[in-house]
Amino acid sequence: MSPRKNYPKNKRPQSAERESTPSNETTEEHPDGIYIVRKLTGSASNKPYRCPGCDQIIPMATPHIVAWLDYDEEGRRHWHSACWAKKNNRGPRTERTRNAPRY
Ligand SMILES: [Zn+2]
Q1: Of 73, 47, 75, nearest in space to 64 by CA
Q2: Which tens digits make up the pLDDT trace of 46-101?
Q3: Phi, psi for residue 70 in degrees, rounded to 5
């Protein structure tokens, strides 16, 4: 006799790691695509990040923004909240002025 154990197989996808959209996560539409924007309190961060907006370090334990294009989660970046807000409002290429003094 060989009794069969018919356990129902609950196949779980390995990717169950993903949290189901935390409430501090939003999507924003930008000229270059849809961004997923997550607000971090900073308490969980254990290393400083460089903000692509101002090229400065975001100190540890500082509330800031993590944002990435919806198709490019690997390319996510950490931003100062203020710099992210500025990115939103930034017009087309008004950043650099051309009137640097010549020597
Ligand atoms: Zn910044």
Answers
A1: 47
A2: 788 999 999 999 998 899 999 999 999 999 999 999 999 998 775 555 445 566 66
A3: -60, -25
Q: Please measure the distance between the N-terminal and C-terminal CA atoms of the chain and give it in whole angstroms.
A: 96
Distance between CA atoms of residues 99 and 23, nearest Å:
45
Encode pLDDT of 26-46 as tens digits. 999 998 899 999 999 877 667
Residue 42 CB: number of other CB atoms within 10 A?
14
Name the residue with tokens 């309190």. Answer: 41
pTM of this structure: 0.63
Around ion ligand 1, which residues have CB less than 5 A away? 51, 53-54, 80, 83
CA–CA gap between residue 36 and residue 26 (Å, rounded): 6
The pair of structure tokens assigned to 4 is: 């069969």
Question: Starting from the edge strand earliest in sequence, which strands make up the sheet with 77-79, in order?
Answer: 25-30, 33-40, 64-69, 77-79
How close is the Cα of 55 to the center of ligand 1, in Å? 6
